[in-house]
Design a protein that fits this description.
79 residues; alpha+beta; 2 helices; 3 strands
């Protein structure tokens, strides 16, 4: 059974650094606990789809993540 989980979070960090981290799927395995591999599937601005692979308790799992990158300005956040 497929499950879809959706959430949105606005974070207070430098937007260039945040975009760099989020858009670099190949590096996810370096900082996401349990992630054994990751790759970019598709990039069509502003949407990016990546795959994260996990090997937990002798079983392989994967997550496909769709990220939409929007630029928020501090003016917009204050409204």
């Amino acid at each position: 059974m497929d499950k879809q989980i959706t959430f949105e979070r606005v974070i207070d960090v430098d937007h260039k650094k945040a975009f760099e981290v989020v858009s670099n799927f190949d590096k996810y395995a370096e900082f996401i606990p349990g992630c054994s591999g990751s790759s970019l599937i598709e990039r069509k601005h502003p949407v990016e789809i990546g795959r994260l692979d996990f090997h937990v308790l002798g079983k392989d799992y994967f997550i496909e993540s769709e990220n939409t990158c929007l630029l928020y300005t501090s003016d917009a956040a204050d409204e």
